[in-house]
Amino acid sequence: MASLQSVTVDQVRLILTEIIEALESPDYAPKLDEAKEAAGNEMLKMMQIVFPMVVQIEMETIKRHGFINSREGIVQFTQLVREMERADTEVARLHSQVRAHYLPPVSISSTVDTSL
């Protein structure tokens, strides 16, 4: 990729869509499900087991679009997505779908204990 400034919103949408398709593909989905099951609902285990798998899949996808196949490339791509998701709801939606693969669901209690 010549320059991060030349990356369009449509390109980022396409890349995020490809990442989601890869995460949900028969090649990766069973492995991710197994990793998630091993991690349970523990955030630390999720970050140790599942997150690296998701990042590896993201790296494989973004390198096909000209990003560097390294930690630097994934950082650049993630920064680009974070900037674009502020202005584009579709990028934000797709990015949240990717994050849902490595962030455990959070349940928020609607009752507040005020007995303290």
TrEMBL record:
Coiled coil: none annotated. Keywords: Cytoplasm. The keyword Glycosyltransferase does not apply. GO terms for biological process: post-embryonic development. The keyword Cytoplasm applies. One of its GO terms (cellular component) is cytoplasm. Transmembrane segments: none annotated. Pfam families: P_C10 (PF14974). InterPro entries: P_C10. It is found in: Cytoplasm. Belongs to the UPF0456 family. This is Protein C10. It comes from Papilio xuthus (Asian swallowtail butterfly). The lineage of its organism: Eukaryota, Metazoa, Ecdysozoa, Arthropoda, Hexapoda. The gene is LOC106118792.
